[in-house]
Every structure is written in structure tokens, then in C-alpha cells.
Task: structure prediction
Amino acid sequence: MAAIVVPTRFGKIALTEEGGALVRAEWDGVAEGRATALLEEAGWQLRAYDGGVLEAFDLPMAVGGSTALQAVCAAMRAIPYGYTRTYGEIAGETGLSAQAVGQLCGANPLPILIPCHRVMGARGLTGYSGKGGVETKVALLRHEGAAGLLI
Result:
């Protein structure tokens, strides 16, 4: 396992690689081991996103855990830059309850890269599990010029 720390306007994000795929992104994490080619590319893409020149990450990512978590993460990855979806919409797609989708969004191991910040409640803005909570979610959505931003 190897990790690097990438400074962004949203905070320092530690990216962790295992087995040739990104497995974790966390605020204020630590870098362990040596930087790999994948981590260097992931750092470049995260900085490009932060700079407003990249809208979609093209990186191998591995989401462990339940099949439900994997399904919700796949649905979140399909949300385009600048758009939002609701927990209910993802629930309808995955066959889970909206509450379960919300809990699984909070368990996303790769925030920003898998854009859980693009998932909203039926009546607008909801919480966010990343550092800074809902303020960080709003900052990410504003950064993207999100069409469905309701505050």
C-alpha cells in the first residue's frame, strides 16, 4: 500500500493505492510508502480538478465492501460534473431505500473522485461526510457550477 497527500482548495487529500487501484481518499490522511505512477497521475488529476480544468477522473478505483456500496458508488460515478441526483433517484436505480443510499454515500471510500457531493436530498442540500461537512459539499458543488444546487 502507498499513499500521497495532495493539497487542494478543499483541504489536503491523502490518496491511497493498493493492488494497482485507488482504494481511499481522505482528508488530512498521511502518506505512507513511496509514490507510484498511479498515485502521481491521481495527484495530477486531483490538482487539475481543483484548478477547474478536469471534469472527470480517469483512474482505476477499487471499492470494497458490500455489493450495495459498490452499486451506489457506481451510480455516483455516473453523475456528470456540474449535475446532481437525489438519494431517491439512486435508490430507484439500485433497488435500495433512499436512507440506505444516504448511509452508503457516507461510506464512500473515495470522496471527490467518486462524487458523493453530487447527491442531494429530495428537498435540497443534506450532510456530507468529508472534512468541513456540508460547507465542503457546497464548495465542491459551487466549484462545479452544479445545476441542481439547492441551498
In short: Strands lie at 2-8, 11-18, 21-27, 85-86, 119-120. The first helix runs from residue 37 to 50. The chain has a mean pLDDT of 93. Helices lie at 37-50, 67-77, 87-94, 98-106, 134-144.
